[in-house]
Amino acid sequence: MTTINRFHPRESMSFAQVLFDGFDLKYADTADLRGFIGQDIVQLGHFYSRTKFGCITKCGSADFNGVDGILGLGMPDAALASIPEPLIFAITDNTGDPISERILTERRFTMVVTRTAGELQLGGYDQRAIAPGHEMKFIKTTSTAEYSVPITSMKFGGVELLDFATVINPRVPGRMSWIPGILDSGTSCIVVPDHTLHGILKAKPFTTLVGLIKDPLYAETRREPITFVIGGHEFQVPFEEWWLEDDNRPCVQSAPPAFMGILLGDALFRSLVVQFDLTHPTVPVIGLAQRNTAYKPVQPGSHWENHKPKNNFDFGIPEGFDGGDVEGASAIDKVPLDTGLQTQIFVNVSIGTPRQHFKVILDTGSSVFG
Question: How far apart (Å, rounded) are the C-alpha atoms in residues 308 and 269?
Answer without folding.
Answer: 29
